[in-house]
Specification:
This protein has helices spanning 19-28, 31-64, 67-117, 120-124, 127-168, 170-185, 191-217, 219-225, 228-280, 286-298, 300-328, 370-380, 403-409, 424-427, 438-444, 448-457, 478-492, 508-521, 534-539, 557-563, 565-572, 576-580, 617-625, 630-639; strands at 348-350, 355-357, 362-367, 392-393, 396-397, 410-413, 422-423, 468-469, 496-500, 526-530, 542-547, 550-555, 597-598, 604-606. By secondary structure, it is an alpha/beta fold. It has three domains: 1-169 and 314-329, no CATH class; 172-283; 348-446 and 478-572, Rossmann fold. The strands form four sheets. Strands 6-9-10-3-11-12 form a six-stranded mixed sheet, with helices on both faces. A four-stranded antiparallel sheet has the order 2-1-4-5, with no helix packed on it. The chain has a two-stranded antiparallel ribbon with strand order 7-8. Helix 1 (19-28) packs across helix 11 (300-328) and helix 15 packs across helix 18 (508-521). The longest helix is centred in the middle third of the chain and has 53 residues, at 228-280. 39% of the residues are buried. Residues 37-306 form the ABC transmembrane type-1 domain. This is ABC-type multidrug transport system fused ATPase/permease subunit. Residues 572-603 are annotated as: Disordered.
């Protein structure tokens, strides 16, 4: 595999049972690249190791005044230098290729897992941990995979040099062959402590990254409540903990590095002392002494790869463990029994709650707990975070469908949808049936002011479809981002569209028009809307009220407000005292059923609610315009 061939057509199915198993799986899947790196590494290290022999021959030739052997030594030295240069260059190329391809494979696996799990991923694993795995951890995993072949080449070279020295000069060769293994394993007792300190550093760094990620994501809310300094102090403390842990880890690795310098120095002193003693006795020649001495010095280079592989494994093991944890997560589905048939059609039914969304109707769902609404919306899309009975579409469990079929049949728009950077045309260029024109979807979502704003800030185009949207739509207001995301969902035209609070950041006037636009565009299509807004509830074909995790009532909006106190409390935001007091029942001709009331602080206590009567849009807007303090109410709603 070459870098230009990335990305992989199929990154494979990883062995995510543990961190070491995952590392071994990566190594096996890059076997050809590892063998290539090993071959170039052997050439490089062998060339380096042969230099002392060439120098020894040259020295001895000079002592003996032999021009022929001196020329031979020069030729061997030139050949060793060429082998060293070629081997080093291609070893670096092969090693970097292994590193990048291993990191790319891990990133593809993580991206595929994120696409499979969707929003369920961040409910099972902290967002900061996912960021840490997909950035720093990927690099460390690639480092170990790359360093393994170089370490193997260095170890083989050391063994061959020791055997060669024993054969070339047994007296000194035995000393070297005995001392080098001691040097190689001397740091092993320190590795567990160094690994634990590295793990602690990684853990604290992951928590700091998670805190930073959560703080940035909620920065606007923090500014609204004046909590920036509080979270900044928390991040400072977390950052200092990371620094202290990094210093402790660095001290241990500095000690290991010092030992790696001290022990080879002691071995070198021993070889020189003993070699001089043997040379005085005439048992070895000066050239042989120089050869052994130079070999010990040169072997310090491959010996450093023992320290590197220990560091690489210590740093990559917790990283591989975290990556394996993410990759071991799976969609709650019976893959073995997955159906190959086309996506079914029909009623959408959740056995866990008893929620039924009839085919072709607009069903509004009211939940007292907003978090429960989000979890149920994910369940309806087949992305449940916990085990449980599968949602049925036309009687077919979504968990038994292939992932593509399930997502093509049911689309879930989260409460906080993400807008990617690019032009508006690119934003709306999503997999779709083709039955809904993008401009019709924009009209239904009431995006006229959004288009005007995009054209106003665009410098090079008058067509709003070619206007650029900044990252996550930060240049737009919350309501504008929400409506663009709704238009994107409408363009896809899925069999079942699930919307979680699609108008929570939209003002009353626009919300009424959005409700009518969605109903008209999604006619004869199944649509489920999680909301407590009376304007949306008024347009629904049926309303389902969930008390806890079970369906408590089903009916029309006006009927449920009149007959179900719990539903009325959620929709009109009644307090317990207000719920206990007599409630005025609207007359039959249709009037505002929910009042807008301000408490002593001027805050909204009861939201707008419209009768199920035959109010036209212009009548609705006329009555809303006549409400007292409407501008103040809208400001409160936008702030909320």
């Amino acid at each position: 595999m070459q870098i230009q061939d990335l990305p992989y057509p199929d990154p494979g199915v990883p062995d995510a049972r543990s961190g070491p198993r995952f590392l071994w799986w990566l190594f096996r899947n890059q076997l050809s690249g590892q063998l290539k790196s090993l071959a170039w590494g052997l050439l490089h290290f062998a060339s380096v190791a042969s230099l002392p022999f060439c120098v020894g021959v040259a020295v001895q030739a000079a002592v003996d005044r032999s021009g022929g052997r001196l020329a031979l030594a020069g030729g061997l030295l030139a050949l060793a230098c060429v082998g060293n240069a070629v081997g080093d260059g291609f070893l670096h190329r092969a090693a970097v290729t292994n590193w990048i391809t291993a990191a790319a494979r891990v990133q593809q696996l993580l991206a595929r897992k994120a696409a499979t799990l969707g929003s369920a991923l961040t409910r099972r694993v902290a967002a900061g941990e996912v960021v840490a795995v997909s950035t720093g951890d990927v690099e460390k995993i690639g480092w170990f995979v790359e360093a393994l072949s170089r370490f193997t080449a260095a170890a083989i070279t050391i063994v061959l040099v020791c055997v060669g020295l024993v054969v070339y000069q047994p007296a000194l060769g035995v000393v070297v062959a005995t001392g080098l293994p001691v040097l190689a394993i001397a740091v092993l007792p320190l590795l567990p402590r160094a690994t634990r300190r590295a793990d602690t550093q990684r853990e604290k760094a992951g928590r700091a990254t998670e805190l930073a990620s959560d703080t940035v994501a909620g920065l606007r809310v923090l500014r609204g409540i004046g909590g920036e300094e509080l979270f900044l102090d928390r991040y400072r403390r977390a950052s200092q903990e990371v620094r202290h842990a990094a210093v402790r880890s660095a001290r241990m690795w500095a000690l290991i590095a010092a030992i790696q310098v001290l022990l080879p120095g002691l071995l070198l002193i021993t070889v020189v002392w003993y070699g001089v003693h043997l040379a005085r006795e005439g048992r070895i020649t000066v050239g042989e002494l120089v050869t052994v001495y130079s070999s010990v010095m040169v072997l310090g280079y491959p010996l450093r790869h023992f320290e590197e592989i220990a560091m690489a494994y210590s740093f990559s093991r917790p990283s591989a463990k975290r990556a394996a944890r993410v990759l071991s997560l799976d969609r709650n589905t019976d893959a073995a029994g997955a159906r190959d048939a086309e996506a079914p059609t029909g009623d959408l039914y959740d056995p866990a709650t008893g929620l039924l969304a009839p085919a072709g109707l607009l069903t509004a769902v009211v939940c007292g707990d907003p978090d429960a609404a989000g979890r149920l919306a994910e369940r309806l899309g087949g992305h449940a975070a916990h085990e449980g009975p599968s949602v049925l579409l036309g009687g077919v469990p979504l968990d038994e469908l292939p992932l593509d079929s399930a997502r093509g049949a049911v689309l879930v728009q989260d409460k906080d949808p993400v807008l990617l950077s690019g032009t508006l045309r690119e934003l709306l260029d999503v997999p779709a049936s083709g039955a809904v024109d993008p401009r019709d979807a924009l009209d239904a979502a009431q995006c006229g002011d959004v288009l005007a704003a995009l054209v106003q800030v665009a410098l090079d185009t008058d067509d709003p479809m070619d206007a650029r949207i900044t990252e996550r739509g930060r240049s737009l207001s919350g309501g504008q981002r929400q409506r663009l995301a709704l238009a994107r969902s409408l363009v896809t035209d899925p069999e079942v569209l699930v919307l979680d609070e699609p108008t929570s950041a939209v003002d009353s006037h626009t919300e009424a028009r959005v409700a009518g636009g969605v109903r008209a565009l999604r006619a004869r299509r199944t649509t489920v809307v999680f909301t407590s807004s009376p304007l949306l509830l008024d347009r629904a074909d049926r309303v389902v009220f969930l008390d806890g995790d079970t369906v408590a009532a089903v009916g029309g909006h006006r009927e449920l407000v009149r007959t179900e106190p719990r539903y009325r409390a959620v929709v009109t935001r009644e307090t317990e005292d207000e719920a206990a007091s007599p409630t005025e029942v609207p007359d039959a001709d249709g009037a505002l059923r929910g009042s807008k009331t301000l408490n002593d602080d001027g805050a909204l206590r009861a939201s707008k609610a419209l009768d199920d009567g035959a109010l036209r849009d212009d009548e609705v807007l006329h009555r809303l315009d006549e409400l007292e303090d409407l501008e103040e109410l809208e400001e409160i709603e936008e702030t909320a």
